[in-house]
Amino acid sequence: MKRIKNIYNLGKKEFLSLRNDKVLIFLIIYGFTFVIYSSAQDDNMELRNASIAIVDEDRSQLSSRIYDAFPEPFFLSPQSIGINKIDSAMDSGKFTFIVNIPDGFESDVISGRSPIIQVNVDATAMSQAGNGSGYISRILADEVTEYLKGYKYSAAQPAGLVIRIKFNPNLTGSWFMS
Question: Is the peptide bond before 158 cis (omega within 30 degrees of 0)?
Answer without folding.
Answer: no
